[in-house]
Amino acid sequence: MTSNSTKQSTTTPTGGNYYTKLYAKHTIKQLEAITGTLSQPSKMPCHGYSLPASMCTTGGKLHKVENSVCKSCYALKGRYVFPNVQSALVYRYNSLVRNPVIWQHALTELIRRKEKSGFFRWHDSGDLQGVYHLRHINNIALSLPDIKFWLPTREIRILRDFKQDNILAPNLVVRVSSFFISQQPHRAFTHTSTVGWSNATHSCPAPTQSNKCADCRACWDTNIHNINYALH
Ligand code: SF4
Question: Do the Cβ atoms of 13 and 143 come closer than 8 Å?
Answer without folding.
Answer: yes
